Amino acid sequence: MNPIDLHTHSRYSDGLLSPRELCAQALKRRVKVLALCDHDTVDGLVPMAEAVTECERKGETLRLIPAVELSAGNNGHIHILGYGVNAAAEPLRNALAETRAQRRERGNEMLLALRKMGIELPPGLLPPDDAQGMPVGRAHFARALVAVGAANTLEQAFDRYLDEGRPAYVPLPHRSAAEAIALLISVRAVPVLAHPVRTGLEPHILEALALSLKEAGLRGIEAFHPSASVAQARTLCSMARRMELLVTGGSDFHGDRGSRAQLGGFPAGWHDWESDLEALDNAIAS
Q1: 3-class secondary-structure state, position 15
Q2: pLDDT tens, 196-205?
Q3: In this structure, how many other beta carbons lie within 10 angstroms of the beta carbon of residue 268?
Q4: What pLDDT score was predicted for residue 189?
Q5: How far is CA 223 from CA 88, 244, 249, 259, 277, in A?
Q6: For residue 108, how far is the Cα from the chain centroid?
Q7: Is 61 left (phi over 0), alpha (psi -120 to 50) or beta?
Q8: What's the sign of the alpha-carbon dihedral 72, 185, 227, 25?
Q9: How confident is the model at residue 181 (pLDDT cuts 50, 70, 90)?
Q10: Which of 52, 174, 217, 253 has the greatest number of CB atoms lying within 10 Å of its CB?
Q11: Secondary structure class of 206 (helix, strand, coil)
């Protein structure tokens, strides 16, 4: 278990836990430094800061790094984390409001696609359309499909219905990775490439992508993530250092039982996390 986790989600996006519950889980698992990186929303950052302050008042040690995770690239396959983000930054909030509207439209299309297949999702299984901070995503649909018995697991729900090429998959418009980086830089956040292994790119193509994104302003690579093996994490870490990029790591925790992503849990081998955290702090402060 690691005392640092720079990639977590709350129910303000597609996680299951409230900020207060997320803090309690972090303390239980002895995580001391936590970053909230909800998908395409910053609405959970103020409640999260309040929950951390409450922990501190009780004498607990827990530090929050405010962040966001932006989906980008073709079909949203590239995700960019933004660390040290200001939740009140108007350019970011305006861009995220547009994304929320697009997600709402896609959600309605997915409901129609499932209905045509004879699958009805009762009200209450998905966040309401007007919910603040809760843009409906495929993870919400996956949980709903499990709840009505259309799938046994989240993975099966994606495999049967929600993954690209499946009957209920509806593409979502995304900004390019360079545009996502530019947006984060405009609000003085530090852009980091999330879970590179999930891009599915061969190592040499991934390195070329990272180089091109560095030219666009990318500052780091999330080398340590549950999607990477220990060997892959080591390779990503080496690549980031060779390219003079920051190294980060996180569990991508959402709170689902049985998931590989557990708070503070990601590939072993991040021995330099303290100096890497200091480098990230310096980048946020600069």
Answers
A1: coil
A2: 999 999 999 9
A3: 11
A4: 98
A5: 29, 13, 6, 20, 13
A6: 23
A7: beta
A8: negative
A9: very high
A10: 253
A11: helix
